[in-house]
Amino acid sequence: MIKKETIIIIIFSISLTWILTIFFTVQLPSQIKIQDNYISNESYSNETYFCEFSKCKFLFPYKISEQESKAQKHMIQYAQMAQKLDRILILPNVGKSKIGSCLKYPFNYYYLIESLQKNFP
What we know:
- This protein has helices at 4-25, 68-84, 113-119; strands at 44-45, 56-59, 63-64, 88-89, 94-95, 98-100.
- The chain is elongated, with a radius of gyration of 24 Å.
- The chain contains 3 helices and 6 strands, in the order H-E-E-E-H-E-E-E-H.
- The protein is α+β, with helices and mostly antiparallel strands.
């Protein structure tokens, strides 16, 4: 039978190992370099392929965690939001009755993109 002191020493050494690992791997805020004291949370592309401006703004729904019927409604809401925010909606992939960026098929595999373009130009 293991003594209580031995268990405490083992737990302490494991905890100390984790603390040292975190201490040497986490970058402290003073080590992060921020250009011009500004951090941007907007997604930009400098190409005019997608829009006529020099900087295009995008809205990308990474994953919609609903089944397909509700996910369709959410996609319409995302399209409305992109239109109101004046952003380009990036259409995620589809598969297994779900919508998400890591799935196998492109959006137009299940849906007609033309109807989205017609309703949300």
